[in-house]
Amino acid sequence: MREIEQTIACAKKKVEQLINVPVLMKISSGRGKSTLCKGEVTGVFPQVFTVRLDDGTSKTFSYSDVHTKNVLFLKKQ
Hints:
five-stranded antiparallel β-sheet, 18% helix
């Protein structure tokens, strides 16, 4: 569920601050399922951003995923 005061622009700013910073991400897969992934944001584009995971793969997400909390950024430990 999204926060009332947050906008897509706020989500984009949050992601831009995480470029090349190690992060732990919780990715919602639907129906109560989620996965934890470690990696770093490598690219920020007008509609999407890319994350390089520690296992070498890359994933692409939209800013609406952050806005609706389908992708959560947690502190990497």
